[in-house]
């Protein structure tokens, strides 16, 4: 790998990175304390990438650079040259699309799932939502149902979406931003699901829908962030929400936490609008 260029603002680096990706120049962004470096995965792309860099530096506000994020937004796995791809390449690609907090939440979910399969009911009792929230002293249980998954399909589906959506927020904004969205959507979606059907629920899907809503609305309010959520993803997830209410997947996933999904989505939309406006007013335009 070779470094093509570095920028002080992530949204500028992301615009160029996505544009290069749209040209099949495979690259990724390395985040350092004071800069964002664009790294080329294949040195043979260097000359062509330098020519595109010169054009970008001459006119960084050209719409083609920002529009590229709509088509190649880094929520989708970057294309990989399939010749000679090994486990290390796959692992590196997965890591580039995540971060420490994304990884930590994924690991907690996996550990809890294994413990639930091995130990059973005591694990669920320790982590499930309190039956009487007015008298509980176990405040962690207001949050911990998001870590509980009941079968392989349940945890795999949630973690795939978590990895992509949470990783995007952590890479493009910060760990603290992701943590704030995670806590808000988890607590509110858990509470809403409890009011709807009691405390026999679990799963990260309310948070996933919160991240979806956040990433959907944030760039619409603050377009210069440099990424977009593909409309097809929004259509799929909203369609999945509607199918959840129909009950057609209950035999596969069990009784779905539809209220958590809906409230998580609405919470994420609200946060996306609020933070999008805040950051738009706070940060200087490019």
Structural account:
Residues 70-87 have low confidence and may be disordered. The chain is built from 12 helices and 3 strands. The radius of gyration is 20 Å and the shape is elongated. Helix 5 runs antiparallel to helix 7 and helix 8 runs antiparallel to helix 12. A hairpin with a 2-residue loop joins strand 2 (27-32) and strand 3 (35-40). The chain has 2 domains: 2-81, Alpha-Beta Plaits (2-Layer Sandwich), CATH 3.30.70.2350; 100-282, Up-down Bundle (Rhomboid-like fold). With 286 residues, the chain is mostly helical. It has a 3-stranded antiparallel β-sheet with strand order 1-3-2, with helices on one face.
Main features:
single chain, 286 residues, mainly alpha, Alpha-Beta Plaits, Rhomboid-like fold, 12 helices, 6% strand
* Helix content class: 55-70%
Instruction: Kindly estimate the percentage of residues that lie in beta strands according to DSSP.
Output: 5-15%
Separation of the first and last Cα atoms: 28 Å
CATH superfamily of the largest domain: Rhomboid-like
Please outline the major beta sheet. Answer: 3 strands, antiparallel
Low-confidence sequence ranges = 70-87
Question: Tell me, what's the shape?
Answer: elongated
Q: Please tally the β strands and state the result.
A: 3
CATH fold group of the largest domain: Rhomboid-like fold
Q: How many domains, as an integer?
A: 2
């Amino acid at each position: 790998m070779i470094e093509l260029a570095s920028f002080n603002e992530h949204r500028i680096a992301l615009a160029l990175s996505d544009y290069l990706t749209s040209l099949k120049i495979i690259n990724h962004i390395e985040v350092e304390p004071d800069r964002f470096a664009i790294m080329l995965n294949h040195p043979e792309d260097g000359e062509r990438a330098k020519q595109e860099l010169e054009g970008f530096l001459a006119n960084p506000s050209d719409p083609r650079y920002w529009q590229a994020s709509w088509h190649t937004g880094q929520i989708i796995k970057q294309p990989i040259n399939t010749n000679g791809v090994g486990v290390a390449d796959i692992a590196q690609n997965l890591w580039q699309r995540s971060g420490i907090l994304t990884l930590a939440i994924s690991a907690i979910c996996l550990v809890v799932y294994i413990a639930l399969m091995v130990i059973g009911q005591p694990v669920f009792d320790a982590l499930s939502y309190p039956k009487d929230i007015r008298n509980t002293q176990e405040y962690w249980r207001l949050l911990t149902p998001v870590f509980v998954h009941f079968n392989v399909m349940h945890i795999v589906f949630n973690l795939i979406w978590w990895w992509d959506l949470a990783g995007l927020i952590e890479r493009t904004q910060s760990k603290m931003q992701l943590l704030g969205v995670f806590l808000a959507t988890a607590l509110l979606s858990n509470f809403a699901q409890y009011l709807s059907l009691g405390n026999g629920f679990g799963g990260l899907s309310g948070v996933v829908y919160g991240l979806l809503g956040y990433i959907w609305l944030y760039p619409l309010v603050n377009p210069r962030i440099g990424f977009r959520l593909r409309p097809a993803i929004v259509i799929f997830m909203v369609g999945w929400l509607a199918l959840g209410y129909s009950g057609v997947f209950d035999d596969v996933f069990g009784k779905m936490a539809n209220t958590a999904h809906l409230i998580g989505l609405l919470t994420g939309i609200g946060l996306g609008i609020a933070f999008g406006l805040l950051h738009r007013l706070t940060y200087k335009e490019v």
